[in-house]
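Quick one:
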Amino acid sequence: MLRAAVLAVAVATSAAATLGSGIDPWDLAPWLARHGGLGLALALGWLVLAPVPLAVAALLQRRTPWPWVAVVTVHLAVPVVLLARFPHLLPGWAWAVTGLSVLLGLASVATAFPAPGARPGS
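Output:
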């Protein structure tokens, strides 16, 4: 359930960044890269494309939780960095959505590991 919530927030964030933010990430990312902001350009690209690696990691979750932990960790850091760097490009409620995303992500990572002594499939 938490993985689904994280994915839903990522899809909504991606859609908002692509369609509703008033900026075109496909124009902004190359501009940032050309002007010394390669890390920010990659972060913006991640924000738009994050649902794909999150979905793959969610599918791999049954085998091992580590891909989910790694992808969610990156996904938690990227929106915070972008929001801190570009607060003027985003609405005021973006911090609340980012906070919700971080809480959901941390909860999903905390519950990604099976309980000690749990049998597979239980």
